[in-house]
Design brief:
By secondary structure, the chain is mainly alpha-helical. 59% of the residues lie in helices and 4% in strands.
């Protein structure tokens, strides 16, 4: 199976690409990665006025080691940064540093640089959801970006004063919340050694931050002023981090490298290789690994989601639905991606009763995240299968609105309003869309 067409197994949604960079900037979504990161943020903000729900975290599929913040409360983390971290505390330390920039209001002091860069960026265009239907696009992230300011990794350059302040605040966040802050220095030390060995190109953690040696001095000073920061490792967080790291490695590195690095029979190795096998078209081997993992831990939703995707790829929809429902139950919280995936599996059966169930899950996905444009696409498809064309047109209008296709959104909203049932939520929203778009579309037409 084509590697690119298999990426949906990781809940990966590729959202947009920007001009002016050699490589497309791919922002990905993965429930396991998001949940683990949000739990770390929750720990770090334990004694802060900020809540984890105030912070937006986005993950960039990149082999460059970097993390940065943009206007508002947005943190961007490159996948390779997670892969090279030796310990969950190193990853937590990087997050603490970026949170410190937000808490210190440093982002707003770089508004001039962001404005300058945003003027060079093209509008956000979506590459689409890979692994399902070719040509379908998604714009879930577009509505939360700061204008067009999310460009190449190297756009956020902080002053030395801001960096020193952020490092010292990060030490405080870590120490006060029972995480050994010395791991911030150890991460920087590892990065410095890697860069010295020419393992990374110039657009990396070092190019967007001061020299690691300088930062280690600031961190040492902050540690010396702390009242004690030697804390035990949280074994559960470490176990979760190792699994996330293994999964990302399998996704972002070659098949050969993955099976070479993860060459034993631990849970981490089984997980990394399950991803590598699947991306390499070895579905049977991938499923065999996942069944072993499920036997070891029957409550892990991420194993079940992944094996469900394997069944879906092989058109065994009943098994895909079974595992995805179990994954949702074991997740313990509602999730827009998992709802979307279950809706898609149900829809693929083309059985009327299951299509109606699919509509329920897709509408719930949208309630959880109204900017999930692929859920809107699937909802339109479901309505079309039930021959409810007015609601199919409405859902299509919503999707086009999200991805910036204003003329097409106006066209489908205008179709929908002619026959959609009056005084329903969909009727009111369609009317709003038409009013919002009317002036803009007429201006662009003239």
């Amino acid at each position: 199976m084509n590697r690119v067409k298999s990426l949906f197994i990781l809940n990966i949604l590729i959202f947009f690409t920007l001009s002016g960079s050699v490589n497309a900037l791919e922002v990905i979504r993965d429930t396991e990665l998001e949940e683990f990161t949000n739990d770390i943020i929750d720990v770090l903000l334990n004694d802060s006025t900020l809540e984890k729900t105030d912070i937006n975290v986005y993950f960039i599929n990149s082999n460059e080691v970097n993390a940065f913040v943009t206007g508002g409360k947005n943190i961007f983390i490159n996948t390779e940064l997670i892969v090279v971290a030796d310990d969950y505390r190193e990853y937590a330390a990087v997050i603490a540093h970026e949170l410190a920039h937000i808490l210190g209001g440093h982002v707003f002091r770089t508004s001039t640089e962001i404005a300058s860069i945003s003027s060079k960026a093209m509008p956000v265009y979506l590459l689409g959801l890979i692994g399902l239907i070719a040509g379908v696009t998604d714009a879930g992230l577009a509505g939360v970006m700061v204008g067009q300011a999310a460009v190449a990794d190297s756009f956020t350059y902080y002053s030395r004063t801001q960096e020193a302040s952020a490092d010292q605040k990060a030490v405080s966040l870590l120490c006060n919340n029972m995480i050994d802050a010395s791991y911030l220095a150890s991460f920087l030390r590892n990065i410095d050694e890697s860069i010295s060995n020419d393992s990374f190109n110039t657009e990396n953690y070092r190019s967007t931050h001061p020299q690691p040696k300088d930062r280690m001095t600031w961190i040492s000073f902050a540690l010396s002023n702390s009242k004690g920061c030697i804390h035990e490792k949280d074994l559960e967080l470490e176990k979760r981090f190792d699994l996330v790291k293994a999964k990302l490695f399998g996704f972002t590195h070659s098949y050969e490298e993955t099976i070479s690095v993860y060459s034993s029979n631990t849970n981490n190795d089984l997980y990394a290789n399950a991803v590598a096998y699947y991306l390499n078209g070895e579905h049977h081997e991938s499923a065999k690994n996942l069944k072993k993992l499920i036997k070891i831990n029957n409550k892990n939703p991420f194993y079940k989601e992944l094996i469900g995707e394997i069944y879906f790829a092989n058109q065994n929809y009943d098994e895909a639905i079974y595992f995805q429902k179990n994954a949702l139950n074991d997740l313990g919280s509602e999730n827009d991606i998992y709802m979307m995936m279950l809706g898609n599996y149900l829809l693929s059966t083309e059985e009327v009763d299951k299509v109606e169930d699919a509509i329920y899950y897709l509408k719930r996905s949208i309630q959880l995240n109204s900017k999930n444009a692929y859920s809107w696409y699937l909802l339109a498809k479901a309505y079309a299968q039930l021959e409810n064309i007015s609601l199919a047109n409405y859902a299509t209008a919503e999707r086009y609105f999200l991805i910036g296709e204003k003329s097409l959104s106006f066209e489908f909203a205008s179709k929908a309003i002619r026959s959609i049932k009056e005084n329903t939520p969909e009727w009111y929203r369609t009317y709003d869309l038409i009013e919002i778009l009317k002036k803009e579309v007429s201006t662009n037409t003239n």
